[in-house]
Amino acid sequence: MKKHKGSVLDFLPSLLVFFAFFIIVLVVINVMKLVSFRQDVKAVVREYILEMETVGYLTPEREDLLVQRLASMGAESIDLLDTTVAPVRYGYPIDLQLSCTVSAETLDMSVGDLLEFIFEDAVYEIKFNMRSTAKY
């Protein structure tokens, strides 16, 4: 049996593909975390707009609970401006407008070296505008 001489160049394409796949997996995992967080916030906002339909506005107690709940999920800089906070009559529109930020790690390859990449904290803004009608 004859032994063939090997070379690093024979394995280089495979190593580059594996490295690229590894980076893509890391990026996808980070993006999915953000998408999952956004869906969780949307579910909470939906729950509160349904409650607002039955009461006619966002009560101060429920507003505090909403802010606490979002903060416990990891949201920061929570703002509820232009949200209906005063009672309205049956059939009038009610709004729940939420703006918050979330910190997440992102892959930064702007260092200039292909093999050197780091994770940096980045801040992403999430906004929801929900409108419904008072039905109490």
Describe this structure in words.
The protein is of the alpha+beta class and 136 residues long. 46% of the residues lie in helices and 26% in strands. A three-stranded antiparallel β-sheet has the order 1-2-3, with helices on one face. Helix 1 (8-55) packs antiparallel against helix 2 (60-73). It is rod-shaped, with a radius of gyration of 24 Å. The N and C termini lie far apart (87 Å).
- How far apart are the first and last residues' alpha carbons, in Å? 87 Å
Shape: rod-shaped
Note poorly predicted spans: none
Biggest β-sheet strands, sense, barrel? 3 strands, antiparallel
Order of helices and strands: HHEEE
Beta-strand percent range = 25-35%
Structural class: alpha+beta
> What's the rounded overall pLDDT mean?
89
Strand order of the largest sheet: 1-2-3
Radius of gyration, in Å, reads: 24 Å
